[in-house]
Design brief:
single chain; 229 residues; mainly beta; Type Iii Antifreeze Protein Isoform Hplc 12; SH3 type barrels; 5-stranded mixed beta barrel
Length: 229
């Protein structure tokens, strides 16, 4: 690490990179870069915190006159991140520096335990600050997103609601008797059958007709299935 710091000392003079607290780059500049990336990627954030981690020591870097920071293509700006430091003057090396960016945003949190299949309403949730980096998926921020949705799993009191916890209510269950509507140019046929799988409004569903043939259609309210011939 001492060797790495000395090799970057030239870049330190330009303000592009230097070693502080054992990091092979200027800590303030690195945090400023990450702050800009986070703010641009997620303007809805209420706040965020950046922790720079100790990188692996490198002893093979040539002196550098100027460096640039970058994030790998497609990388998210928060959570565990790796920030690239690329030498653009005097050498051609690139190193990756580890960091942890914790981010918070307003989100909806369950006020009471909610069971799977329940349609949560405004009275069941409250807006609180949620740490996004602790959640594996997008957090629901607007109560309007709850309309026409039910919970795909149970949610404990105080738990943030995520988009992947919600689904459209199922209008057809596996084994339900259903009404088939088969329409084409100049004709319309009605028949009966049995749903082979569950489906929500507008989702594809397979149905066995009374004659034993399996058809595919689109589930509709009232146990109807629209089939295109």
């Amino acid at each position: 690490m001492r060797r790495l710091i000395s090799l970057l000392a030239v870049a330190c003079a330009s303000g592009a990179a230097c070693a502080q607290s054992g990091l092979p780059a200027d800590e303030a500049a690195l945090k400023e870069f990450l702050s800009r990336q986070v703010a641009a990627a997620a303007p809805q954030l209420s706040r965020f915190d950046i922790q720079l981690l100790q990188p692996a020591a490198r002893a093979d870097l040539a002196p550098c006159g100027r460096t640039e920071f970058f994030l790998p293509a497609g990388a998210r700006a928060w959570g565990r991140v790796s920030v690239g430091v690329r030498c653009v003057q005097g050498a051609g090396w690139t190193v990756m520096l580890p960091a942890v960016v914790r981010a918070w945003s307003p989100g909806l949190v369950a006020q009471v335990p909610l069971a799977a299949g329940v349609a949560p309403g405004p009275q069941d949730v409250a807006e609180q600050e949620v740490e996004l980096t602790r959640e594996p998926g997008p957090v629901v921020r607007d109560a309007a997103a709850l309309q026409g949705r039910v919970l795909a799993r149970s949610v404990g009191a105080g738990q943030p609601l995520r988009a992947d916890m919600l689904r459209a209510p199922q209008v057809v269950q596996a084994g339900d008797p259903v009404h088939l509507r088969i329409a084409g140019t100049g004709f319309a046929i009605s028949a009966t059958g049995q749903a082979l799988v569950a489906a929500a409004e507008g989702q594809p569903v397979r149905v066995r007709t009374e004659f034993g043939k399996v058809l595919s259609g689109v589930a509709r309210q009232g146990r109807y299935v629209d089939v295109t011939p």
